[in-house]
Amino acid sequence: MTRTSDSILPGGRGLTFWGQWLVAIGLTTLLLCALAVYKTGTLDTQYRILAVIAILASVPAYSLLRVYHKQHGYLTGLARLLCGWLLLLACLTVVAFVTKTSELFSREVALTWAILAFTAQAASYLPLQHFSRRYHRQLQSERTSLIIGTGDLALELADKLVRHQHEPVVGLVASDSAELPSNSLYPILGGLEHLRALIAEYGIRRLYIALPLAEAEQIEGLYIDLLDASVDVVWIPDLASMMLLNHSVSDIGGLPAIHLNESPLTAYPTAAFTKAVMDRVLALLALLALSPLMLTIAILVKRSSPGPVIFKQQRHGWNGQVIEVWKFRSMRMHDDQDVKQATRNDDRITPIGRFIRRTSIDELPQFINVLQGSMSLVGPRPHAVAHNDYYTGKIDAYMARHRIKPGITGLAQVSGCRGETETLDKMQQRVELDLAYINNWSVWLDLKILIKTPFTLLSKDIY
């Protein structure tokens, strides 16, 4: 199955990625070889092997972080380049450690190479991005397009083509049963009977069919009629009314398939594996670093009120499976089936509980959940099963937020949606952000959320 959406490798942006990657890896390889020869007088075998491994490992490392995505700004692109380079260096370090070959390399060569190679890549990034975007815009400007359709879908498509793709749209063509818009920025050039003449008159290179699904028979007839018209034909399905989740298009044995709803963890297995490794490594490091604090909190919780130190609550995890989430107990024991959330000045919260909730220290045992694999560092926050049962019938696609593993922090939390959701609108907003996270998930997005999380821990909405 061939996937054409944004995945671990750069599908539609292939030329953008591979061209810039080739320049970057060429610079780093030349620098490595030059430094090795300068230091040792010859290019020893270990440096040749290192160069080959660096070339191979740079592809998934840079692809995962979408280093050369054409839509990045310069500073964002440099930040991704730095993260990609550090990830590549980490991979090379692990390989050297596992194979016990680190002593074969000069530390001076390795350190100098790490600094100079990134500097060279950073210096070449701006001109490469400028050239890539200029070349892309030139190609797009040479492609004159025409849209068949006059409805909302056609108008939205025209706006996106002009604003985001820089693709000229000469106008719209009305279908047989079309209702003409009263106000449109794009001229309606005629009906379907004028299509052939319009293609010839305007030198059309690409036709977009943006008609309602109810006109499927007409769409098929149009396509067959245009097979010999020497133009590209693109069909834009009218799926605006559907709540798509991580949607994409693929080919299954020659049959086009539209994925309306798919978990990122199954859609992009390589990126999902990277997320799982990153989760466990960072969770283990966090537990080691925070163990003295966690021991102190455990003692204080035990002395605060009767009950266990760890509060274990059933919540829904990936694909709606019930998992057991751990927290330091911050409340006096109460019925787990109670739908009521913690509120400001809640008398169920103990004094030490108020402090650990206010500082989010009560969430630290969830690093153990991450090590177990039931949670992730980043993802939609898991809600109690009773809360999920309550909201499922009140908010559309509420349970769709479980199409990825729940996290200790998430997009909703760093976007201001923390604390009590005392109204349905607040929960709706949180769910929308959770679904936006699933639709836009990437390793880079996880890193950004992790970096932002510490700055949100003292939010006034946490209690």
Automatic annotation (TrEMBL):
The lineage of its organism: Bacteria, Pseudomonadati, Pseudomonadota, Gammaproteobacteria, Pseudomonadales. This is Putative colanic acid biosysnthesis UDP-glucose lipid carrier transferase. Residues 275-458 form the Bacterial sugar transferase domain. It is a multi-pass membrane protein. GO terms for cellular component: membrane. It comes from Pseudomonas oryzae. InterPro entries: Bact_transf, EPS_sugar_tfrase, Undecaprenyl-P_gluc_Ptfrase. Its main location: membrane. GO terms for molecular function: phosphotransferase activity, for other substituted phosphate groups. It is found in: Membrane. Keywords: Membrane, Transferase, Transmembrane, Transmembrane helix. Pfam families: Bac_transf, CoA_binding_3. The keyword Transmembrane helix applies. The chain crosses the membrane at residues 21-41, 47-65, 77-98, 110-128, 281-301. Gene3D superfamilies: NAD(P)-binding Rossmann-like Domain. Belongs to the bacterial sugar transferase family.
